[in-house]
Amino acid sequence: MDERYRSTTGEAAEETAEALEEGRRLFAQPVRFLVGVADAAQLPPAALPEVAFAGRSNVGKSSLLNALVGRRGLARTSKTPGRTQQLNFFELGGRLVLVDLPGYGYAAAPRAKVEAWSGLVRDYLRGRPSLRQVCLLIDARHGVKRSDEEIMELLAQAAVPFRLLLTKGDLPRREALAARLAEARALSRRRRAALPEPLVTSARLGYGIAELRARLASIAQPPEDGS
Q1: Whole-number Å distance between alpha carbons of 44 and 203
Q2: I want to staple 52 with a disulfide (CB 3.0 to 4.6 A). Which of 99, 173, 195, 196 is the partner?
Q3: Could you please report the per-residue DSSP string of 166-214?
């Protein structure tokens, strides 16, 4: 593991061996695309626990999802910001649903369409009974922006727990990454609904993936056999 990553995350980012194994088992299960939603009327039944992935356009949501499930083509990735234009639902092993949300802050689309996506995302975040947690992705190179703060406030008002994830953690220099992590920790302490201890991730090199799997496994529906 890159010493830059180890030195900034420290022991706080480490999970127990049992939790890591549970996360590995969950994300080794089959994953399938359920539905792409462009209108609230198309939302699937709220059955399994859901985890949504939110963040600014081009923050790396699709890449992180692909790394979590170990499949390159599950979520479409693109260098063009705003490529994800709907809420994409994926079912994992009959125990958890992963939701890839459209990026906010920029999109290569007409303003009216961007506003429609934004409204759909806000309606989903405010009123989805099966939504257990939001992973709020922050580009480790750029830190928290005003649009991120607005989503945090929305989640606080809706009482939806969220965890900050620093993406592309292999790109900043060690000192810059440490500063971004300190900023995220401070935000987590003062923001209502924020879960403790942000996580540094890199979809390209695998940093933080096992730890994130472990944390998400803790909110998944228990397996039917109890194992």
Answers
A1: 28
A2: 99
A3: EE-TTSS-HHHHHHHHHHHHHHHHHSTTBPSS-EE-BTTTTBTHHHHHH
- 178-222 tens-digit pLDDT: 999 999 999 999 998 999 899 999 999 999 999 999 999 999 999
Q: Which residues pair with 164 in a beta bridge?
A: 136
Give the integer Cα–Cα distance in Å for 61 and 34. 18
In-domain check, residue 210: yes
Q: Which domain does 30 fall in, by range?
A: 13-217
d(CA 64, CA 77): 10
pTM of the predicted model as reported, rounded to 2 decimal places: 0.86
For residue 163, give Cα distances in angstroms to 63, 65, 121: 18, 15, 17
Establish if 102 belongs to a structural domain.
yes
